[in-house]
Every structure is written in structure tokens, then in C-alpha cells.
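Progress narrative, work stream C.
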Amino acid sequence: MAAGSSLGGVILPIMVNHIIDRSGFPWAMRGVAFLLLGLLVYANLTVRSRLPPSPKPWSLFEFLMPFRELPYFLVVFAAFLFFFGMFLPFTFIILSAEHDGMSNHLANYLIPILNAGTFSPHADVPCVHLHPADMPLVSIFGRTIPGYIADKTGRFNTMIVTSFLSTILVLALWLPARGNVPYILFSAFYGFSSGAFVSLAPALVAQISDIRQIGVRTGSMFAAISIAALVGNPIGGALISNEDGNYTHLEIFCGVMMLGGSVVFVAARWSLAGFKPAVKV
């Protein structure tokens, strides 16, 4: 399911840009709405529950109880910090690239590249070609391959590696990026590493939860981290405004928040198994 959203992330931005050029913004939004409507009709007609539903009274206390457990609290807090920064590249990468000299035509492909990447000759950028039909689906692989690796090496271990990788990419590649190639490389690699977080976060909750509580505990986690996703972009915009249109403070904020989340993931692993790097957790 997470991989499917990456495929949508490749198709929809390109689709919207082309429809806006041909028919204007209103019809672009209608086109997206009709596409989603058709997909949702199909999904709702074909989805089946594995077990019969068993309704029970809703209780706020049931959603708050898991936070009393240290491993669960640390996982949610780590995801909260990571979410503060994770979506900032998706929101500001186009504007940041244009600020550093990338053409508008090429910059509009950076979001699809965050979900897919390719490298070959292009008229605007030597040795770089962007065509959706050629794209190896980087973020789709980022949402599938780490899950397979996590089953072999440990979910917490894999999450820690991919989280630190995302942090390094922000601070060591996006922050100093000046020119087209660094932005395209960052978009492709960050799409892979951040895609791993999307697919692995619920798996971490499932690993430390009773199977009967996975739904409630996963919902509690996403309810908490949605706050970070909501306020992260306005904070990023304010940082840009305070710096007179420069993106340096935004990029630093993004990297530092993700670094904090990565460190807390390490603490969550420690709460389960101690500092034993060879243990599968």
C-alpha cells in the first residue's frame, strides 16, 4: 500500500502540470478528483476484511494507555521528531532548486524524482534526463526493499540506518547543493531513504504491540505525529521568510529534527535490547 502511494507521487505531479498547461488549474483538479474517485470506487467494492468486524465502545483512555510504555513512547516521539523534517523536502525542493538556478521545467520533475529517479542525457542538464517512462521507482523500492531487509536484520535496526541516511542526505547533500545534478541526486536518494520510514514506522509499533492492539496503537502514533506533519511546513515557510528567501535555515532545521528522531530511534532500540549492535531487533 505504501508503495502504491509512491507510484501516485510519480504520476500525479506530472499529470497536474500537463493538464494545467492545456486546460487550466480547475480542470487539473477535476481530473485528479475523477481519477481518485474511480480508484476509490474500485477499492471499496473489492476490499474485504480478514476477520468479521466486532464493534466495541470507543474509549479515549484506550488510545492514551500505550504511551505509558517506554518503548512505545520512544518510537512515537522519534517518529514525531522525524516527521517535523521529513516532508520539508517534498514541499520546498522545487522552490529551493529554482532559487539556486534550476529551470522551472526541470524543477517541476523533482517531486516525481523523489518517488522515482533516472540518469541520462538531457538538454537542460548534461548527463541527466527526466522521463517518467525511464524512471526506476526509487521511493517505491524504498518502501518495499527495506521491509524485506528488516525481516532479516531487524525492523529497529533497519529504521535506524535509513533514518540516519535521510539525515545525512539533507545535511550533506541538500544543504550545500548548488546546481542541477546535486538536487536530482538528493531527490532520488532521499526518495529511497524517506520511503523506508513510511513503511517501517507501523511495523515498529506492531513489533512491540499485542496483535489485538495493533490498530489502536498504530492510530495513536499517527494521530500524534500528524501534528508534526501539520506544523512543520509553516515553520519551514517562516524560516525562509525570516532569511529573506534563503533556504539555509530551513534545510538545517529539517536535518536537525530528523537527526533528533534518528537518535530517539536508537534510544527506543536500547529500551528493548540494550546497546547490542549484533542483536536483531
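Work stream C, second folded protein:
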Amino acid sequence: MVLSCYLHRKPSNEQAIFQIIQDRARQLVEQNTFPAHSPSRSTSTDSASLDPLIHLARAQALLVYQLIGLYDGNIRLRYIAESHIPVLNSWMRKAVDCASQSNSLGSYLVSSSCVEAATKGLSWERLVWYSWILAESLRRTWLVVSAIQAVYLTSQDGVPYCLGGMMFTSREGFWEAPSALVWQKRCSEVYGGLVRLTETDKLFAMVAPKDLNDFAKLALGVTFGTEQMERWGVVTSDSPS
């Protein structure tokens, strides 16, 4: 909702929307950050009690506010977004740590008030597929956070910045799979192309453009630029018609 308001803002309501973004970002952080001995801790959001899906959701919400704040140009929004950089980094690490300690990530994607009961009716294939979806979502979110912050911080002080390596699935057909059976069949036929962002240059020589998913193409485009993508055979929105 906030992102939609921001994208459709007008000069007449711009300041009001900026204020909403500020308030929502602060509220999100305050609801998820409490001193160790705070009397509100027992009834507030304790990160240790959050499941991986909630960890991911709050990180993605703050990511939206941070993207707007860092790149809009409004000084007040930028100040708040900068102050939340360590918060978002901490939330992402906690999300990854929580996911790595989970026995069944897929169970958290089941829409039920009782996850244990709901997962009993799931096939093994669907549970594994759901687990992969959540894991890949975490990986992609980590990479987007890293890229957004790296570009901003490097532009500010000229010092290269990196949140850390994270692999993601680069091949087409996995994220796009409409069902567990289709996804499992794809896994048995083709390697998923797990790759780190620092190694994506290898894809130009090893994989045809049609074999990469949209996220991988976006990562390559942001990293190497439009000209390199066009030489590789990918038509971009910046290409002359």
C-alpha cells in the first residue's frame, strides 16, 4: 500500500506520503526492537520467537522503506533510511540463521492456524518445494538488500561495500514452476545453476540467455550493464527499437 502511494504520488500530496513512509518505517522498527530488559519484551515481537516467514516479511517491508528513503532524494527520508541500514542487516542475518536451523521450512508456507496438522496432509514433494521457495526467497532478498546498500554506500564514500556472499538459483524453470511435480521434474532434468553474485560473469560463457531466469538476468544487467547484456543477446528496455 505504501509503495503504491509513493509510486502514484503528486506534488499536492507528496509531503503527506513522505510522512506516512517515515511513520511506518519507524513503527516497524520500534515494534521489532526492544531492549533486553524492557518490560514490554514479554508481550512484544521477540526475534527468537519469530518463524522464518515472519523474519522474511519484516525484512522485505523494511527493504521497501529503505529503497525509497535512500534513493528518493528527500533528506529526512534518507536520514531515517540510513539509520535503519544496520537494523535491516541484522534482520536479514537473523532470518537466514532462523531458516538454517529449521527442520522444515516448507511448513511455514502452509496457510493454517495449526502448522503441524496442516503439514500432515502435504505430500513430501510439496513440502520440499515449499521449503525451496522460502529458501530461495531469503537468498534473493539478501542479494537485493546487499545490492541496494552497496550502491548507496559506495556512492557516498567511494569505499566498496559487500554484505556477504549468497548463492541463488540462476536457471529458468525452477522459480517459475507452477507445481511441486513440475519443480521436481525440473530438478531431475537440469542443474539449478546455484551461483554467487561475484561469479555471475561465468554465466555469459556457460549458459544461453534463454536458460536463465529473470532474476539472474536482472543481476547480470545491474552488475555488467546494458551493453554487455546486448552483446550476449538479451534485448533490454534501453535497447534502441
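The longest strand covers residues 167-169. No further action is required on this item.
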